[in-house]
Amino acid sequence: MCGNGSFCYVRQAYLQDFIRRWDLDDSVASQLRALNRAQLSEVMTCNIAQARNPSAMVKSRIRSVLARPSQAEFSAHQQTVEEYLARYNVDEAAQAEMRSAAPEVQLRVMEQELSNCRNPSAVLSSRIREISRGSR
Asked: In which domain of life is the source organism classified (predicted)?
C-alpha cells in the first residue's frame, strides 16, 4: 500500500497510536487505514481532545474529507471550465460569473453549446442564473 517502506512503517505506527490513544472503534480504524496520506493528515489534525465520542468525531471528519474532490479532480474540472470559456470567447464578466458558479452549476452549463449564439456572453450569464435558481 505504501511505496516507501520506512515511511509506511512510521505511518502505520503513528496511526495505530492515534487509534489506541482515542480508543476508536474498529470500523473507524478501518476507515482511517483506507485513507491516503493527505486525507489521513487532515483527519488526524482535528482536535478531538474535548470530544465526548472521539469515534463519532473522527468518522465525521473522514466523511467530510472524502466528500471533497481531490486536488487533481478539482484541477481537471477547472481546466474543463477554462477550455469551455476559451472555446466561445465570452467577455470577462461572463467568465468571472462562470468561474464563481458552483461546480454542479458549471457542469450543467457546459452541457449546452454556445456555438450558435449571437451573444455567447449574454447566453452564458443567463444560463448560469437560470441553473443556479433551479438548483437551490
From this structure: Eukaryota
